[in-house]
Amino acid sequence: MRKIILFAAAALALAPVSARADGAPRGTGDLGIVIERAQGSVQVVETTGRTSLGRVTGLGDLSHATAVFSRDGRYAYVFGRDGGLTKVDLLRVKIEKRIIQSGNSIGGAMSQDGRLIAVANYTPGGVKVFDSRTLDPVADIPATAKADGTRSKVVGLADLPGQKFVFTLYDTGEIWVADLADPAKPAIIKFKDVGKLPYDALVTPDGRHYIAGLFGEDGLALLDLWAPEMKVRRILPNYGQGAEKLPVYKMPHLRGWAKAGDKVFLPAIGRHEVLAVDARTYEDVGRIPVHGQPVFAMARPDGRHVWVNFAHPLYDTLQVIDTVTMKVVHTFQPGRAVLHMEFTPKGEHVWVSLRDEDRVDIFDTASFRKIGSIPADKPSGILFAARANRIGL
Protein backbone atom coordinates (compact mmCIF):
# COMPACT_ATOMS: atom_id res chain seq x y z
CA MET A 1 0.00 0.00 0.00
CA ARG A 2 2.85 2.37 0.85
CA LYS A 3 4.41 1.79 -2.60
CA ILE A 4 1.11 2.68 -4.26
CA ILE A 5 0.87 5.90 -2.27
CA LEU A 6 4.48 6.85 -3.11
CA PHE A 7 3.92 6.12 -6.80
CA ALA A 8 0.77 8.25 -6.83
CA ALA A 9 2.59 11.11 -5.09
CA ALA A 10 5.43 10.97 -7.61
CA ALA A 11 2.98 10.96 -10.51
CA LEU A 12 1.21 13.99 -9.05
CA ALA A 13 4.52 15.84 -8.66
CA LEU A 14 5.34 15.23 -12.33
CA ALA A 15 1.88 16.15 -13.61
CA PRO A 16 1.50 19.29 -15.75
CA VAL A 17 0.79 22.39 -13.70
CA SER A 18 -1.62 23.90 -16.20
CA ALA A 19 -4.66 22.63 -18.02
CA ARG A 20 -6.88 23.78 -20.85
CA ALA A 21 -10.32 25.17 -20.18
CA ASP A 22 -11.78 21.67 -20.61
CA GLY A 23 -9.54 20.35 -17.81
CA ALA A 24 -7.11 18.46 -20.04
CA PRO A 25 -3.36 19.02 -19.61
CA ARG A 26 -1.67 21.11 -22.29
CA GLY A 27 1.72 21.25 -23.91
CA THR A 28 3.84 24.29 -24.66
CA GLY A 29 4.68 23.90 -28.35
CA ASP A 30 2.08 26.45 -29.45
CA LEU A 31 2.72 29.06 -26.76
CA GLY A 32 4.39 32.43 -27.06
CA ILE A 33 4.41 35.99 -25.79
CA VAL A 34 3.45 39.43 -27.07
CA ILE A 35 5.51 42.23 -25.53
CA GLU A 36 3.44 45.25 -24.44
CA ARG A 37 6.16 47.83 -24.27
CA ALA A 38 4.28 50.82 -22.80
CA GLN A 39 3.10 49.19 -19.58
CA GLY A 40 5.88 46.67 -19.00
CA SER A 41 3.79 43.57 -19.53
CA VAL A 42 3.54 40.52 -21.77
CA GLN A 43 0.56 38.60 -22.98
CA VAL A 44 0.86 34.81 -23.08
CA VAL A 45 -0.74 33.56 -26.30
CA GLU A 46 -1.41 30.24 -28.00
CA THR A 47 -1.33 29.80 -31.77
CA THR A 48 -3.64 26.77 -32.13
CA GLY A 49 -6.81 28.61 -31.18
CA ARG A 50 -5.22 32.03 -31.76
CA THR A 51 -6.11 33.36 -28.31
CA SER A 52 -4.58 35.18 -25.36
CA LEU A 53 -4.20 33.13 -22.18
CA GLY A 54 -3.52 36.09 -19.91
CA ARG A 55 -1.30 39.04 -19.11
CA VAL A 56 1.81 39.16 -16.90
CA THR A 57 2.67 42.60 -15.48
CA GLY A 58 5.63 44.04 -13.60
CA LEU A 59 8.40 43.39 -16.13
CA GLY A 60 9.88 46.92 -16.07
CA ASP A 61 11.12 48.85 -19.11
CA LEU A 62 10.28 46.84 -22.23
CA SER A 63 11.03 49.60 -24.75
CA HIS A 64 13.55 47.40 -26.56
CA ALA A 65 12.70 44.01 -25.10
CA THR A 66 13.23 40.53 -26.43
CA ALA A 67 13.12 37.02 -24.99
CA VAL A 68 14.43 33.46 -25.25
CA PHE A 69 12.77 30.24 -24.14
CA SER A 70 13.62 27.20 -22.05
CA ARG A 71 14.19 24.04 -24.06
CA ASP A 72 10.86 22.58 -22.88
CA GLY A 73 9.03 25.74 -23.93
CA ARG A 74 7.60 26.39 -20.49
CA TYR A 75 9.55 29.51 -19.54
CA ALA A 76 10.20 32.77 -21.35
CA TYR A 77 13.23 34.79 -20.22
CA VAL A 78 12.49 38.43 -20.96
CA PHE A 79 15.34 40.95 -21.27
CA GLY A 80 14.32 44.53 -20.39
CA ARG A 81 16.07 47.78 -21.20
CA ASP A 82 16.31 48.56 -17.48
CA GLY A 83 18.67 45.62 -16.94
CA GLY A 84 15.85 43.37 -15.82
CA LEU A 85 15.87 39.62 -16.47
CA THR A 86 12.46 38.10 -15.87
CA LYS A 87 11.60 34.40 -15.93
CA VAL A 88 7.94 34.00 -16.94
CA ASP A 89 6.05 30.73 -16.47
CA LEU A 90 3.92 30.39 -19.61
CA LEU A 91 1.77 27.61 -18.16
CA ARG A 92 0.92 29.43 -14.96
CA VAL A 93 0.96 32.86 -16.66
CA LYS A 94 3.03 34.43 -13.89
CA ILE A 95 6.52 35.65 -13.02
CA GLU A 96 8.66 32.85 -11.65
CA LYS A 97 11.56 35.17 -10.74
CA ARG A 98 12.87 38.61 -11.65
CA ILE A 99 16.28 40.21 -11.09
CA ILE A 100 17.94 43.49 -12.05
CA GLN A 101 21.32 42.39 -13.34
CA SER A 102 22.63 45.66 -14.86
CA GLY A 103 21.76 49.27 -15.56
CA ASN A 104 20.96 48.85 -19.26
CA SER A 105 20.71 45.61 -21.26
CA ILE A 106 20.02 44.84 -24.91
CA GLY A 107 19.06 41.16 -25.22
CA GLY A 108 20.42 37.74 -24.48
CA ALA A 109 20.78 34.10 -25.46
CA MET A 110 20.25 30.58 -24.14
CA SER A 111 23.08 28.02 -24.12
CA GLN A 112 22.88 24.87 -26.23
CA ASP A 113 21.92 22.67 -23.27
CA GLY A 114 19.45 25.21 -21.87
CA ARG A 115 21.28 25.61 -18.56
CA LEU A 116 22.77 29.08 -19.04
CA ILE A 117 21.27 32.48 -19.85
CA ALA A 118 23.69 35.12 -21.16
CA VAL A 119 22.75 38.82 -21.17
CA ALA A 120 24.34 41.58 -23.28
CA ASN A 121 24.77 44.82 -21.35
CA TYR A 122 25.31 48.44 -22.27
CA THR A 123 25.87 49.52 -18.66
CA PRO A 124 28.20 48.30 -17.38
CA GLY A 125 29.46 46.98 -20.71
CA GLY A 126 29.91 43.23 -20.84
CA VAL A 127 28.10 39.90 -20.66
CA LYS A 128 26.65 38.34 -17.52
CA VAL A 129 25.69 34.67 -17.37
CA PHE A 130 23.07 33.10 -15.13
CA ASP A 131 21.75 29.69 -14.18
CA SER A 132 18.49 29.34 -16.13
CA ARG A 133 16.77 27.48 -13.29
CA THR A 134 17.56 29.83 -10.42
CA LEU A 135 18.82 33.02 -12.16
CA ASP A 136 21.86 32.86 -9.88
CA PRO A 137 24.98 34.46 -11.44
CA VAL A 138 27.60 32.04 -12.75
CA ALA A 139 29.93 34.22 -14.86
CA ASP A 140 30.77 37.86 -15.54
CA ILE A 141 32.65 38.84 -18.73
CA PRO A 142 33.58 42.56 -18.67
CA ALA A 143 34.00 44.25 -22.05
CA THR A 144 37.10 46.14 -23.15
CA ALA A 145 37.61 49.46 -21.38
CA LYS A 146 37.48 52.67 -23.43
CA ALA A 147 39.77 55.66 -23.00
CA ASP A 148 37.43 57.25 -20.46
CA GLY A 149 37.51 54.14 -18.28
CA THR A 150 33.98 52.96 -19.05
CA ARG A 151 33.49 49.66 -20.87
CA SER A 152 32.27 49.11 -24.40
CA LYS A 153 28.61 48.35 -25.00
CA VAL A 154 27.94 44.73 -25.96
CA VAL A 155 25.45 43.90 -28.74
CA GLY A 156 24.64 41.06 -31.12
CA LEU A 157 24.78 38.31 -28.48
CA ALA A 158 23.91 34.86 -29.86
CA ASP A 159 24.26 31.23 -28.83
CA LEU A 160 26.55 28.75 -30.58
CA PRO A 161 26.85 24.96 -30.42
CA GLY A 162 29.12 23.65 -27.71
CA GLN A 163 28.08 25.90 -24.79
CA LYS A 164 29.46 28.96 -26.56
CA PHE A 165 28.26 32.51 -27.05
CA VAL A 166 29.37 35.12 -29.57
CA PHE A 167 28.93 38.89 -29.37
CA THR A 168 30.28 42.21 -30.59
CA LEU A 169 31.77 45.15 -28.71
CA TYR A 170 30.20 48.26 -30.21
CA ASP A 171 32.64 50.96 -29.08
CA THR A 172 35.90 49.07 -29.57
CA GLY A 173 35.13 47.22 -32.82
CA GLU A 174 35.62 43.65 -31.61
CA ILE A 175 33.97 40.22 -31.84
CA TRP A 176 34.39 37.79 -28.95
CA VAL A 177 33.59 34.08 -28.75
CA ALA A 178 33.09 32.84 -25.17
CA ASP A 179 33.28 29.13 -24.32
CA LEU A 180 31.24 28.42 -21.16
CA ALA A 181 31.88 24.68 -20.95
CA ASP A 182 33.25 25.57 -17.52
CA PRO A 183 31.23 28.62 -16.44
CA ALA A 184 33.67 29.31 -13.62
CA LYS A 185 36.46 29.79 -16.19
CA PRO A 186 35.09 31.26 -19.43
CA ALA A 187 37.53 30.85 -22.34
CA ILE A 188 37.46 33.92 -24.58
CA ILE A 189 38.72 34.27 -28.16
CA LYS A 190 38.93 37.93 -29.20
CA PHE A 191 38.93 39.37 -32.73
CA LYS A 192 39.98 43.01 -32.85
CA ASP A 193 39.58 45.72 -35.50
CA VAL A 194 36.59 44.06 -37.18
CA GLY A 195 35.17 47.43 -38.29
CA LYS A 196 33.74 50.65 -36.90
CA LEU A 197 30.82 50.42 -34.47
CA PRO A 198 29.42 46.92 -35.01
CA TYR A 199 25.82 47.56 -33.99
CA ASP A 200 24.03 44.21 -34.32
CA ALA A 201 24.70 40.71 -35.56
CA LEU A 202 23.28 37.29 -36.33
CA VAL A 203 24.27 33.64 -36.48
CA THR A 204 23.22 31.63 -39.53
CA PRO A 205 20.76 28.79 -38.76
CA ASP A 206 23.50 26.13 -39.00
CA GLY A 207 25.69 27.98 -36.49
CA ARG A 208 28.54 28.40 -38.97
CA HIS A 209 28.67 32.12 -39.77
CA TYR A 210 28.42 35.12 -37.48
CA ILE A 211 27.74 38.37 -39.34
CA ALA A 212 27.97 41.83 -37.77
CA GLY A 213 26.62 45.03 -39.27
CA LEU A 214 28.80 48.15 -39.05
CA PHE A 215 27.23 51.48 -38.16
CA GLY A 216 30.45 53.46 -38.61
CA GLU A 217 31.29 52.36 -42.16
CA ASP A 218 29.95 50.42 -45.11
CA GLY A 219 30.23 46.66 -45.30
CA LEU A 220 29.79 43.77 -42.88
CA ALA A 221 32.12 41.64 -40.77
CA LEU A 222 31.87 37.86 -41.20
CA LEU A 223 33.36 35.22 -38.90
CA ASP A 224 33.47 31.62 -40.15
CA LEU A 225 33.15 29.59 -36.95
CA TRP A 226 33.93 26.30 -38.72
CA ALA A 227 37.25 27.45 -40.17
CA PRO A 228 40.35 25.70 -38.74
CA GLU A 229 41.82 29.13 -38.09
CA MET A 230 38.96 31.50 -37.37
CA LYS A 231 39.33 35.03 -38.65
CA VAL A 232 37.03 37.91 -39.52
CA ARG A 233 36.75 39.09 -43.11
CA ARG A 234 34.84 41.94 -44.68
CA ILE A 235 31.94 41.25 -47.05
CA LEU A 236 29.54 43.38 -49.10
CA PRO A 237 31.79 46.46 -49.10
CA ASN A 238 29.00 48.62 -50.56
CA TYR A 239 26.40 47.56 -47.99
CA GLY A 240 25.50 50.67 -46.03
CA GLN A 241 24.78 54.29 -46.77
CA GLY A 242 27.30 54.38 -49.61
CA ALA A 243 28.61 57.46 -51.38
CA GLU A 244 25.21 59.17 -51.26
CA LYS A 245 24.50 59.54 -47.55
CA LEU A 246 20.79 59.06 -46.94
CA PRO A 247 18.85 59.64 -43.72
CA VAL A 248 18.33 56.43 -41.74
CA TYR A 249 15.02 56.46 -39.84
CA LYS A 250 15.63 53.15 -38.08
CA MET A 251 18.56 50.75 -38.27
CA PRO A 252 17.52 47.34 -39.62
CA HIS A 253 17.48 44.44 -37.16
CA LEU A 254 20.01 41.89 -38.31
CA ARG A 255 18.12 39.09 -36.52
CA GLY A 256 15.42 39.83 -39.07
CA TRP A 257 17.57 38.75 -41.99
CA ALA A 258 16.14 35.88 -43.98
CA LYS A 259 17.89 32.80 -45.37
CA ALA A 260 15.84 31.16 -48.09
CA GLY A 261 17.40 28.38 -50.17
CA ASP A 262 20.76 29.51 -51.51
CA LYS A 263 20.14 33.19 -50.82
CA VAL A 264 20.12 35.53 -47.86
CA PHE A 265 17.76 38.51 -47.94
CA LEU A 266 18.65 41.55 -45.87
CA PRO A 267 17.41 45.12 -45.45
CA ALA A 268 19.46 47.82 -47.16
CA ILE A 269 20.40 50.55 -44.68
CA GLY A 270 18.64 53.83 -45.45
CA ARG A 271 17.42 52.62 -48.86
CA HIS A 272 14.15 51.38 -50.27
CA GLU A 273 15.65 48.02 -51.15
CA VAL A 274 16.08 44.47 -49.95
CA LEU A 275 19.41 42.91 -50.89
CA ALA A 276 19.73 39.33 -52.11
CA VAL A 277 23.06 37.73 -51.24
CA ASP A 278 24.58 34.39 -52.24
CA ALA A 279 24.55 32.28 -49.05
CA ARG A 280 27.86 30.57 -49.96
CA THR A 281 30.00 33.46 -51.17
CA TYR A 282 28.14 36.39 -49.53
CA GLU A 283 28.26 38.34 -52.77
CA ASP A 284 25.47 40.68 -53.82
CA VAL A 285 23.27 38.92 -56.42
CA GLY A 286 20.33 41.32 -56.67
CA ARG A 287 18.39 44.22 -55.22
CA ILE A 288 14.61 44.29 -54.85
CA PRO A 289 12.84 47.69 -54.78
CA VAL A 290 10.41 47.94 -51.87
CA HIS A 291 7.96 50.42 -50.32
CA GLY A 292 10.28 52.10 -47.80
CA GLN A 293 13.34 51.61 -45.61
CA PRO A 294 13.06 47.95 -44.51
CA VAL A 295 13.46 47.02 -40.85
CA PHE A 296 12.75 43.27 -40.77
CA ALA A 297 13.01 40.95 -43.76
CA MET A 298 11.75 37.63 -42.40
CA ALA A 299 11.48 34.35 -44.29
CA ARG A 300 8.47 32.10 -43.99
CA PRO A 301 9.78 28.82 -42.52
CA ASP A 302 9.70 27.07 -45.92
CA GLY A 303 11.74 29.91 -47.46
CA ARG A 304 9.41 30.62 -50.38
CA HIS A 305 8.35 34.09 -49.25
CA VAL A 306 10.05 36.91 -47.35
CA TRP A 307 7.85 39.37 -45.45
CA VAL A 308 9.14 42.93 -45.02
CA ASN A 309 8.09 45.79 -42.75
CA PHE A 310 9.32 49.37 -42.85
CA ALA A 311 10.61 52.31 -40.83
CA HIS A 312 8.67 55.48 -39.97
CA PRO A 313 6.90 57.20 -41.68
CA LEU A 314 5.98 54.32 -44.04
CA TYR A 315 5.42 51.75 -41.31
CA ASP A 316 1.76 51.03 -42.02
CA THR A 317 2.69 48.66 -44.86
CA LEU A 318 3.83 45.06 -45.33
CA GLN A 319 5.25 43.57 -48.51
CA VAL A 320 5.84 39.96 -49.50
CA ILE A 321 8.74 38.96 -51.76
CA ASP A 322 8.78 35.75 -53.82
CA THR A 323 12.28 34.34 -53.31
CA VAL A 324 12.26 32.56 -56.68
CA THR A 325 11.30 35.51 -58.89
CA MET A 326 12.82 38.06 -56.45
CA LYS A 327 9.81 40.31 -56.93
CA VAL A 328 7.20 41.78 -54.61
CA VAL A 329 4.03 39.70 -54.99
CA HIS A 330 1.78 41.30 -52.38
CA THR A 331 1.47 44.70 -50.67
CA PHE A 332 -1.06 45.66 -48.03
CA GLN A 333 -1.64 48.08 -45.15
CA PRO A 334 -2.70 46.24 -41.98
CA GLY A 335 -2.58 49.38 -39.80
CA ARG A 336 -0.38 51.98 -38.14
CA ALA A 337 3.08 51.16 -36.80
CA VAL A 338 3.81 47.60 -37.89
CA LEU A 339 6.69 46.76 -35.53
CA HIS A 340 7.23 43.01 -35.69
CA MET A 341 6.18 39.72 -37.28
CA GLU A 342 6.39 36.12 -36.12
CA PHE A 343 5.53 33.00 -38.11
CA THR A 344 3.93 29.95 -36.59
CA PRO A 345 6.45 27.07 -36.53
CA LYS A 346 5.46 25.64 -39.94
CA GLY A 347 4.57 29.00 -41.45
CA GLU A 348 0.85 28.68 -42.17
CA HIS A 349 0.14 31.90 -40.24
CA VAL A 350 1.99 35.10 -39.39
CA TRP A 351 1.26 37.30 -36.37
CA VAL A 352 1.80 41.05 -36.84
CA SER A 353 2.07 43.66 -34.07
CA LEU A 354 0.37 47.01 -34.75
CA ARG A 355 1.55 49.33 -31.98
CA ASP A 356 -0.62 52.34 -32.75
CA GLU A 357 -3.71 50.20 -33.33
CA ASP A 358 -3.29 48.42 -29.97
CA ARG A 359 -3.71 44.98 -31.48
CA VAL A 360 -2.01 41.97 -33.02
CA ASP A 361 -3.41 40.75 -36.34
CA ILE A 362 -3.05 37.20 -37.65
CA PHE A 363 -2.83 36.41 -41.37
CA ASP A 364 -2.99 33.28 -43.49
CA THR A 365 0.33 33.26 -45.36
CA ALA A 366 -1.04 31.51 -48.45
CA SER A 367 -4.07 33.74 -49.11
CA PHE A 368 -2.83 36.83 -47.16
CA ARG A 369 -6.29 36.91 -45.59
CA LYS A 370 -6.70 38.24 -42.06
CA ILE A 371 -8.01 35.40 -39.88
CA GLY A 372 -7.83 36.81 -36.37
CA SER A 373 -6.96 39.69 -34.07
CA ILE A 374 -5.99 40.04 -30.40
CA PRO A 375 -6.21 43.33 -28.46
CA ALA A 376 -2.83 44.35 -26.99
CA ASP A 377 -1.47 47.49 -25.32
CA LYS A 378 1.18 49.02 -27.62
CA PRO A 379 2.49 45.63 -28.81
CA SER A 380 6.02 45.30 -30.16
CA GLY A 381 7.87 41.98 -30.20
CA ILE A 382 6.03 38.72 -30.83
CA LEU A 383 8.02 35.62 -29.88
CA PHE A 384 6.93 31.97 -29.95
CA ALA A 385 8.31 29.16 -27.80
CA ALA A 386 9.31 27.20 -30.92
CA ARG A 387 12.37 29.47 -31.00
CA ALA A 388 13.79 27.32 -28.18
CA ASN A 389 14.88 24.73 -30.74
CA ARG A 390 16.68 27.02 -33.17
CA ILE A 391 20.30 28.22 -33.09
CA GLY A 392 20.73 31.98 -32.76
CA LEU A 393 17.23 32.73 -31.48
Walkthrough of the structure:
- The chain has a 4-stranded antiparallel sheet with strand order 3-2-1-32, with no helix packed on it. The chain has a 4-stranded antiparallel sheet with strand order 4-5-6-7, with no helix packed on it.
- By secondary structure, the chain is mainly beta.
- The longest helix is centred in the first third of the chain and has 13 residues, at about 1-15.
- It has a domain at about 100-250: YVTN repeat-like/Quinoprotein amine dehydrogenase (Methylamine Dehydrogenase, Chain H, 7 Propeller), CATH 2.130.10.10.
- It has 1 helix and 32 strands.
- It has one helix spanning about 1-15; strands at about 30-35, 40-45, 50-55, 65-70, 75-80, 85-90, 95-100, 105-110, 115-125, 125-130, 135-140, 155-160, 165-170, 175-180, 185-190, 200-205, 210-215, 220-225, 230-235, 260, 265, 275-280, 285-290, 295-300, 305-310, 320, 325-330, 340-345, 350-355, 360-365, 370-375, 380-385.
- About 5% of the residues lie in helices and about 45% in strands.
What's the topology here?
Blueprint: H1 2-14, E1 31-36, E2 41-46, E3 51-56, E4 66-69, E5 75-79, E6 84-89, E7 94-100, E8 104-110, E9 116-123, E10 126-131, E11 137-142, E12 154-160, E13 164-169, E14 174-179, E15 187-191, E16 198-203, E17 209-214, E18 220-224, E19 232-235, E20 258-260, E21 263-267, E22 273-278, E23 284-289, E24 294-299, E25 305-310, E26 318-322, E27 327-332, E28 338-343, E29 349-354, E30 359-364, E31 370-375, E32 379-384
Antiparallel strand pairs: 1-2, 1-32, 2-3, 4-5, 5-6, 6-7, 8-9, 9-10, 10-11, 12-13, 13-14, 14-15, 16-17, 17-18, 18-19, 20-21, 21-22, 22-23, 24-25, 25-26, 26-27, 28-29, 29-30, 30-31
